[in-house]
Amino acid sequence: THTLPPGLEYLNQLDQIIIHQQVELLEVILGTETSSKYEIKNHLGQRVYFAVEENGCFDRKLCSPIRSFTIRIADNAGREVIRVIRPLRCNSCCFPCFLQELEVQSPPGTIAGYVVQNWDPFLPKFTIQNESKEDVLKIIGPCATCGCFEDVDFEVKALNEMTTIGKISKYWSGFVNNVFTNTANFGIQVPVDLDVRIKAVMIGACFLIDLMFFENSLDGL
């Protein structure tokens, strides 16, 4: 444990991570897009980390689902332990050479790994990479991510894409909550013995999936 990045020791014993987006009153009343804030909890609902998105109003308003951002994740003592960096890139199968890529640092300034979107004409696919950009895991989502009245699962698989070892789930939390707050609740399930750096990268993958597939999920209502 003494070799783990500072602040990630707690992830060493977790196989389930809950991410809850906090409701912003201004966003509810005026419909104004504000910087996202999240609580990251264990399976008992106890807060482990707190995350805040940093970017400009221009990015949130005009580039919403593909916007660049930096998410700073701090422990309960206020110490930043994880930093998630997303540059502005494309989100379309029409541009397979410039798809999404996200960098996760832990501690800030030290690469923990990457989340790389893979081109596929039908399914959302991502590769989890370590700090050396070596492939570690795959994430494969469903054809439809609307999730009406049910959870939406993105399966975490081995590199052969045959063995499922976990999942990232978008929890359906009810019509009233979804329509009037548009907040997100996610769960990450991974093996307890997974490298804590890769667990930190999985948290970054969860943020990326939220913005890519669920940020504007209510526009058609």
Automatic annotation (TrEMBL):
<dbReference type="GO" id="GO:0017128">
    <property type="term" value="F:phospholipid scramblase activity"/>
</dbReference>
<comment type="function">
    <text>May mediate accelerated ATP-independent bidirectional transbilayer migration of phospholipids upon binding calcium ions that results in a loss of phospholipid asymmetry in the plasma membrane.</text>
</comment>
<keyword id="KW-0449">Lipoprotein</keyword>
<dbReference type="InterPro" id="IPR005552">
    <property type="entry name" value="Scramblase"/>
</dbReference>
<protein>
    <recommendedName>
        <fullName>Phospholipid scramblase</fullName>
    </recommendedName>
</protein>
<dbReference type="Pfam" id="PF03803">
    <property type="entry name" value="Scramblase"/>
</dbReference>
<keyword id="KW-0564">Palmitate</keyword>
<keyword id="KW-0106">Calcium</keyword>
<comment type="similarity">
    <text>Belongs to the phospholipid scramblase family.</text>
</comment>
<dbReference type="GO" id="GO:0005886">
    <property type="term" value="C:plasma membrane"/>
</dbReference>
